[in-house]
């Protein structure tokens, strides 16, 4: 599932998640309506506030309230087991709707206590030969010291959140912009 690029302080983690939703719907929710993720994955994301800019635009700054730790899934509600509430202030660095790609860079918050820099790139592609899509997560980071762990738990958080978003998209009537290709 995940692969790690080993180095001293700089690294990359990647994972792919198969989903049943279309690439366009998933991308549109994450890039244009991220505040709806609180409904899609409430055990992971408790808040998403527009801090600067406008939804779905490069340069936009978003503040996330999230729960990072061990989570046991329970339908769409995701029961909390062990972990803590955290905050991240992120800027949209790249947005390519034709490729269903978005990159967020962490500016401030809990992650900056352990990482000098960290970016999350999400690209969703239609599955070849059938319905559904593949969500590809890429975490690129620089740790503040050797003692800091690689962010495998953050990657797992992203994978689990993707599953919640997929379930939400399949069960809810989510408004999609007409320009988004499926």
From TrEMBL:
<dbReference type="InterPro" id="IPR023393">
    <property type="entry name" value="START-like_dom_sf"/>
</dbReference>
<dbReference type="Pfam" id="PF00407">
    <property type="entry name" value="Bet_v_1"/>
</dbReference>
<dbReference type="InterPro" id="IPR051761">
    <property type="entry name" value="MLP-like_ligand-binding"/>
</dbReference>
<feature type="domain" description="Bet v I/Major latex protein">
    <location>
        <begin position="8"/>
        <end position="172"/>
    </location>
</feature>
<dbReference type="InterPro" id="IPR000916">
    <property type="entry name" value="Bet_v_I/MLP"/>
</dbReference>
<dbReference type="GO" id="GO:0006952">
    <property type="term" value="P:defense response"/>
</dbReference>
<protein>
    <recommendedName>
        <fullName>Bet v I/Major latex protein domain-containing protein</fullName>
    </recommendedName>
</protein>
